[in-house]
Amino acid sequence: MDFKYLPEAVSLKTVNDFSEEEVKVAVWLCEGSKSPGPDGFNFNFIKSNWETLKEEIMEAVYAFEESGSFPKGCNALFIALIPKVKDPVMIDHFRPISLVGALYKIISKVLSCRMKVVMHLVIDDVQSAFMEDRGLLDSVFFLGLKLCLFI
Questions:
Q1: How many domains does the chain have?
Q2: Which residues pair with 100 in a beta bridge?
Q3: How far is Cα of residue 21 from the mean position of the Cα atoms in its chain?
Q4: CA 8 to chain centre
Q5: Would 103 be classed as within a structural domain?
Q6: Which end of the chain is more exposed for a tag (fewer CB within 10 A), N or C?
Q7: H or E element: which one contains 8?
Q8: Residue 28, pLDDT above cutoff 60
Q9: Would you say residue 115 lies in a domain?
Q10: 32 in helix, strand or coil?
Q11: How close are the terminal C-alpha atoms of the chain, in Å?
Q12: pTM of the model
């Protein structure tokens, strides 16, 4: 069986330096009004103050790019319990949410956008996980189709 792989030119693009445009796109892809991270800021604040904040955000992104790790505390998160019902008394009456810092979300979004572009090159046609427009049972259908062709 031949495994799919990334051509060298495509592979090199996945490790290019982060661009300001790429980071800005990632910020705009993040839901703006969701709960803030531990730093207290949500993405609406970042979007509305992008011109003021972009230099510091890019400096942090470049620091991650250089070191491959986040400064201490940047990937820390808090778990908050949000009541699902009035007067909750049991643990299942709450919905847990993670309050993750914006920098962590931005870098994760940039990396996931890069991966989204190349996933189809490395994921086999019969595999349905990770692929847009494929259902969980599509792989069963494709496998059955391949078996029928060989019988």
A1: 1
A2: 77
A3: 17
A4: 24
A5: yes
A6: N
A7: helix 8-14
A8: yes
A9: yes
A10: coil
A11: 18
A12: 0.69
